[in-house]
Each structure stands twice: as structure tokens, then as C-alpha cells.
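Input record (one chain):
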Amino acid sequence: MKKVFFTGLAIFGLLYVGACSDDDAPASTTTLTETQAEAVASAVGEGTGAAVQGGGFGRLAVRSQGTGSAAVDGTFTCEGGGSISTAGTTTVNEFTQSSASADYGVTSTFNDCIVQTEEGDNLTLSGSVTNNGGFDFTFSETSIGGSVSADITGNIDVSGDNVTSGTCGVSISVNSTIADNVVNSTASGSVCGQSVSFSETDTID
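The corresponding structure, as predicted from the sequence alone:
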């Protein structure tokens, strides 16, 4: 069983890819190997992570020190070529010196994004996933606390080396709690019929 770095929501966790399916995931019309599913999962994580980390919440919070909405937009360049474009809205419910909360909805669109598996297969991805979630944070001079949640769903069209071209269903739920600068994260779901899950603890420096 392999590990996939998942950077969605600025949470650096580890996705474990197994052989089980998830009935809640969008339908898939092709079957991927574990390493191929890992490459797709990694691209989904990197794309959604780039959207949230570089999106509207930070810009809006810095400017307004209050509440409101901002557009999330940007482009993440895929390592092998192509890109992932992001678009959506972040709604800031609260932003003060001691707390912050927001909800967001972001769509990540894969524009012939090329990823490579551990075996060297090149896969071309198109289609899109949606990332809907929110977070609540509290701040002090010495620590950060709060929670983050997200549901990522969609369909990715996959073609390339050693794969039958088709649609890959993606469905992943992510939850994290933060206390005294310690982040406990879990995720579960599936990517193209391969079960994915992780449980990770990290420290915010």
C-alpha cells in the first residue's frame, strides 16, 4: 500500500490507496491500478490545495478585517504539462485578531493536466472536481485552534499510458481538528474505485 501526499485545504496529510470501492463516489467508466489512482489523487489534492491556500480568504481577510465574500481564482501548473484552473467563492463569516471562520465552494478544472505514476506512465486528466467546506480558527499569541472540513467530489477523464480512457469518479471527505498547534487530520473516500484514507498528526510551527 502506497502513500500519496495530499495538500488540499493546506493540510499536509498522507492518503493511503487500497483496493476497495466507495458506493458514494461518482460512477467510473475505467479502472486504474493503485499507482495510477495515486497519481490522480495527488493531482486532486495539489489542485484543491492551491485553490484554498492562494484563494480569496487571505486577500479578503487582510483587506477587510471583517466579513464578506471574495472570488477564488487561479491556475496551478501540472508538472508534466497542462494546468488546473480554480474558481469559486469564499465567504468570511468572521475575522478578528482572535478568531476567524469561513465557508467556501471551489471548482478545480483539469486542463489536459499530465501526471506521472511511479512506474513512469503519463496520464492526461481533464474534467473537474468541486471542493465545498469551511473552517473555524481561534488565535492567541502562542497557539492556534479550530477545525477544517471539506467534501471533494467530481469526475476526471483519464487517458494515457497503460490505461483504458474513461471517466474516474472522485469522492473524498476531509476533517481536521486543531488544538494547541497540533493538527489531527482524517480523510476517506475513493478515487476511480480505489479506496483512499488517511490519518495524520502534524504540528504547526
